[in-house]
Write a structure and sequence with these properties.
By secondary structure, the chain is α+β, with helices and mostly antiparallel strands. The chain is built from 10 helices and 4 strands; from the N terminus they run E-H-E-H-E-E-H-H-H-H-H-H-H-H. Strands 2-1-3-4 form a 4-stranded mixed sheet, covered by helices on one side. The longest helix has 31 residues. It starts with 14 loop residues before the first strand and ends in an 8-residue tail after the last helix.
């Protein structure tokens, strides 16, 4: 990885990943680390600092017209570019997972995994992204969208928690098999506290997160392009060690709870 501000591609072979330390970015880095561990498939990455709008520059939008991370460029297949996390997961496993270690040979089981990746892509990700904004990032604290999007994220994580009841993984027969369905959903659930969610209130989800966080490739993927800053583990430790940060978090939670009370929010899932 180059330490300078990216201005274009730096590799001429293998997969090149353009990414940042977000849930969507971690989808791509985790599956690439899993493929590296399973098959020796190496890759190159560049850090695209979204706070500096590098992803809006013409050289980047050539590969992702939407100006968002992550993007991969497959230099071994005529520099073919793929953007959007779901598309990246399916592309990489289609071309570089011949043994279906992270997908399924059975068409019905594959469909189930595909459904849960689509569910994340169309529901959990967009709703939790709005929760992040209104709960934590917006300069103005507005009660209605705060309770609306935090509440919808709770509802969706409740669905995932129910799915994981008596299961180890999201898709697959019996207790399931680790797959792209897990990778797609993991990144978002793994920043639940950042979004104003009490992750421990979802016991099946909490166990599943612990299970995935123990995978060596997941640990490596979470550190691409640099150490994670907003994952559950990182934030819980920060609030424990830093009294001021912990106090600010308590204030945010209080505002969240008041917003829920103001609009009569009651948790329900589905």
């Amino acid at each position: 990885m180059s330490s300078q501000r990216p201005t274009g591609l730096i590799a001429d072979k293998g997969i090149e990943l353009l990414t940042f330390g977000t849930p969507n970015g971690h989808k791509a880095s985790i599956i690439l680390e899993e493929l590296k561990e399973a098959y020796g498939k190496d890759y190159t990455f560049q850090s695209i600092d979204i706070t500096e709008n590098i992803q809006k520059e013409p050289w980047f939008t050539k590969y992702c017209p939407n100006g968002r991370i992550p993007v991969i460029i497959d230099h071994d297949r005529n520099d073919f570019a793929v953007f959007e996390g779901l598309a990246i997961l399916t592309y990489l496993t289609r071309h570089y997972d011949p043994d279906n270690k992270f997908t399924f040979s059975d068409p019905d089981e594959y469909s189930i995994a595909e459904q849960w990746t689509a569910w994340q892509h169309g529901g959990l990700g967009p709703m939790q992204g709005q929760a992040n904004h209104f709960y934590r990032l917006a300069k103005e604290r507005i009660p209605y969208p705060t309770q609306r999007y935090v509440g919808e994220t709770e509802r969706l994580l409740g669905i995932l928690d129910k799915r994981l009841e008596n299961r180890d993984y999201v898709a697959g027969p019996g207790k399931g098999k680790y797959s792209i369905a897990d990778i797609a959903n993991f990144g978002w659930a793994n920043i639940g506290y950042f979004s104003g969610i009490d992750v421990k209130s979802f016991p099946n989800l909490h166990k599943w997160l612990d299970r995935l966080n123990e995978r060596p490739a997941v640990k490596k993927g979470l550190n691409v392009p640099g150490p994670p800053k907003i994952t559950n583990e990182v934030l819980l430790q920060k609030w424990k060690d830093d009294a001021e940060a912990g106090q600010k978090e308590e204030e945010l939670r209080s505002l969240r709870d008041k917003a829920k009370e103001q609009y009569g929010y009651k948790y329900a899932s589905p």
